[in-house]
Amino acid sequence: MSTPSAKKSKPENPPFQKEPIRNQVPLSQWSCRNADIYKKVDQVGEGSFGKVYKAELLDESSPNNHKIYALKKILMDNEKEGFPITALREIMILKRLNHKNILSLLEIVTKKEKNKTGIVYLVFEYMEHDISGLSNMKINFPIECIKCIMYQILEGLQYLHKNNVLHRDIKTANILLNNKGEVKIGDFGLARIINPNLKKRITNRVVTLWYRAPELLFGENVYGSAIDVWSVGCVFSELITGVPLFKGRKESEQIEKICEIIGTPDESNWPGVSKLEFYSKLCPKKKYDFSLRKIYDDNEKVDDVCFDLLKKMLFLDPKQRISVDDALKHDFFTKHLPMICKPEELPKIPYDTHEFQIKRDRKEKNKNLNIGNNYNFKGNFNNNNMIVGKKDYKGNLYGNNNNSNVNMNLLVNNNNNNTNNNINNSAGNNKINNKGNLEIEKKSENILLNGKKEEGNFNKVEKKNIIETLLEAPKTHTDNIKDFLGKKREEEKNNN
């Protein structure tokens, strides 16, 4: 006689347990309305997926009682096989998520345009700020506010990991904050549902480079929630200092930056690391020691308790890295003084601050910055962008003290006449001193005015400030610059 089969018990933690969210439309009532019910106010984001807009709702009959929303435009122009798979994955994941610290997808709207592919927008609740924008604006949070922001990030991440979702792009630009003090994780374009019991290979080309975990950089393609914890550790450091912790320009440089601070990985501190695909190629030959603590020696926010949590988030070995559950129980949140503040006690910032907006506005200011009445100036020194703003219009140049080639572009606007003047200083002994002045020795200068090349020499000129020279040029007509520079040469010869 065969024994009856045992009934399958329900899992203790069924996937995607719903939590009610205020103002969210039930999924059963979802339908694709026309995008014309929203009026775009400003662009607040941009990426490979498309663009994000701040928008005002015009349809008063909408069941949502918000007034301002975020519209994420899905880029369709380059798609040859229908709707982008990454956008489909994002929608499917967001429709299954409900948590106070996860950005809510409210609806999907569409719009048709003549002779063009249909446009699809994802509609989200609007958040006035992101952490990257606040960092760029030099907003300095006290430690009790950093605790509040970090705790909310970890609560949102805990919900994702319990439901087997990896975000795979945690960074300051994707950590959003509203004027109620609520922190939410956004941008699920790279998110993925995984089965932790199956060691399935997935791409390691995820996470923005500065926030990418070392196992991904070394080529690991069987990974878990520890990659998100590393990214949160990078965000934590940035909240404290206001600057990114690891700023590499490519994978090899990113690994170098990490090793310089966290130490060089080997079998003693990360068992199995030498077997990763790119370890032998990318791992620095130099043996670096752990020096993370030195970065915060002069930072009063970072004491032993705070540093302990940060250090555990940034362990090289993902198996040793702290879990989100343990991070939420850490003394930094539960016992450490000053105690964590409430979300509503976070500082209220009266204007929107998003990374895209800050960079766009800064670019426009640098492009169209008026020096004096008529001059717009932009320059490049040693391939580094020169900072020209209200505080340094008098001519302070930011550059290295190495021998340098200076490549300057001066745009002179007067009565709608534009003249491009390219001044190429190619002396081998040019240096920028610690006061920001350019030292020139036996420099030859080529000037291009109205398409004609003029040559001349400045002999034995020392500590000459290029910008102050240009600012003295007459502003009556751009052609006068040529005569002005000629007179300057004569004055230098007479003085010598």
Per DSSP E runs of 2 or more residues, the count of β-strands stands at: 20
Write the CATH architecture name of the largest domain.
Orthogonal Bundle
CATH superfamily of the largest domain: Transferase(Phosphotransferase) domain 1
Which range does the strand content fall in? 15-25%
What would you report as the Rg, rounded to the nearest angstrom? Answer: 28 Å
Shape: globular
Helix content: 25-40%
Average pLDDT reading = 76
* CATH top level label of the largest domain: Mainly Alpha
Major β-sheet annotation: 7 strands, antiparallel
Continuous helix count: 14
Instruction: Report, as a whole number of angstroms, the end-to-end distance.
Output: 115 Å
Overall SS class: alpha+beta
- What name is given to the CATH topology of the largest domain? Transferase(Phosphotransferase), domain 1
Uncertain spans, ≥5 residues at pLDDT below 50? 1-23, 370-479
Write down the domain tally.
3
